[in-house]
């Protein structure tokens, strides 16, 4: 009887190891599939930008809906849903509102342009976004921050005022003055940003404050994570600045840092609006930074992690073979 229980236990371990091996194979297939799709998407985006720039707003809109739907599904499971209330997602919604609801509004185009090339573009650097083709999460994060920069460049400097698609997108007016552009981008853009900041604070720090606290104080394995919680707990200069503030004022310190960052980045937008060469250089810099981060990930992080996974998989297979030999009748 004791031998029978031992054999049953060993066979259970064998089945567990085999399931892990099959799961590892499935993960590798998923990575290959995502890598192929990621490279194809990058190539298609480059081709359309040069050959069919009028399609870029349409492709951007379709990709946004697909990627955000997937992110919403996965982030809700991980209790990361509050990340989708961040400013970068709101800025993309401003772009969609301009493209498909108010295409004649030059003021809204300027605001969307400033958001894309200011806070969102620099976020690629600040958040160290990476061009990692096989990672849906990393590709989505890069898309959220960088694709609006591409859309703004194409629409401002490559498309005529009347888009070839038949939708009239106003991207400029004759005799534009620096003062008018700066007013729309900085003053009006800041008003829109403050409206988002107020709505965000009302949702996260007032309406859902107790809900988040109850969940994070409970014994549940998955806690709610917001941008404030994530950045405050990081061992970084920004996290240190937030933690130095009194605990009751840390949210205000976080909001003040965000506001200062946004104001500084909005100041960059008018130069890119009037200079296609400066705008292209900015786009190239952001792309190059993301490619460099992607190469660092593949050669310094992913390769070591992948080798370790393969080593663990080989150990599991060897263990399964040994257990199978021992339990053979």
C-alpha termini separation: 15 Å
Beta strand %: under 5%
Largest sheet: none
Note the overall shape: globular
Low-confidence stretches are none
Number of helices: 12
Per DSSP E runs of 2 or more residues, the count of β-strands stands at: 0
Helicity level, as a percent range?
over 70%
Rg measurement, Å: 25 Å
Describe this structure in words.
The longest helix has 52 residues, at 276-327. Helix 2 packs antiparallel against helix 5, helix 3 (87-100) packs antiparallel against helix 4 (106-126) and helix 5 runs antiparallel to helix 12 (276-327). It contains twelve helices and no strands. It has helices at 2-51, 56-77, 87-100, 106-126, 136-157, 178-207, 209-217, 227-232, 237-244, 250-266, 269-274, 276-327. 78% of the residues lie in helices and 0% in strands. With 329 residues, it is mostly helical.
Q: How are the elements arranged and paired?
A:
Blueprint: H1 2-51, H2 56-77, H3 87-100, H4 106-126, H5 136-157, H6 178-207, H7 209-217, H8 227-232, H9 237-244, H10 250-266, H11 269-274, H12 276-327
Short description:
This protein has 329 residues and is an all-alpha fold.
Keywords:
329 residues; 0% strand; globular; 12 helices; mainly alpha
């Amino acid at each position: 009887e004791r031998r029978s229980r031992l054999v049953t236990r060993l066979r259970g371990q064998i089945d567990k190891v085999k399931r892990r091996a099959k799961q590892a194979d499935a993960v590798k297939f998923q990575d290959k599939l995502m890598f192929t799709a990621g490279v194809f998407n990058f190539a298609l985006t480059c081709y359309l930008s040069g050959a069919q720039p009028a399609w870029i707003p349409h492709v951007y809109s379709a990709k946004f809906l697909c990627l955000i739907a997937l992110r919403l599904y996965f982030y809700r499971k991980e209790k990361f849903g509050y990340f989708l209330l961040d400013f970068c997602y709101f800025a993309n919604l401003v772009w969609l509102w301009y493209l498909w609801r108010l295409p004649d509004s030059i003021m809204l185009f300027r605001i969307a342009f400033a958001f894309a090339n200011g806070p969102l573009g620099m976020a690629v650097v600040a958040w160290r976004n990476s061009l990692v083709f096989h990672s849906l999460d990393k590709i989505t994060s890069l898309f959220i921050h960088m694709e609006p920069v591409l859309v703004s460049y194409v629409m401002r400097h490559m498309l005529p005022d009347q888009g070839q698609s038949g939708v009239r997108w106003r991207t400029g007016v004759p005799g534009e003055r620096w003062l008018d552009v700066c007013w729309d981008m900085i003053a009006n853009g800041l008003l829109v940003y403050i409206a988002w900041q107020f709505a965000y604070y009302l949702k996260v720090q007032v309406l859902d404050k107790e809900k988040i606290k109850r969940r994070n104080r409970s014994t549940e394995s998955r806690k709610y994570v917001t941008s404030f919680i994530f950045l405050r707990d990081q061992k970084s200069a920004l996290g240190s600045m937030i933690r130095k503030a009194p605990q009751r004022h840390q949210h205000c310190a976080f909001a003040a840092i965000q506001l200062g960052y946004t104001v500084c980045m909005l100041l960059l937008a008018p130069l890119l609006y009037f200079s296609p060469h400066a705008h292209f250089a900015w786009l190239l810099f952001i792309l190059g930074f993301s490619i460099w981060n992607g190469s660092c990930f593949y050669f310094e992080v992913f390769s070591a992690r992948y080798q370790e996974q393969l080593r663990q998989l080989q150990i599991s297979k060897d263990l399964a073979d040994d257990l199978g030999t021992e339990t053979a009748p």
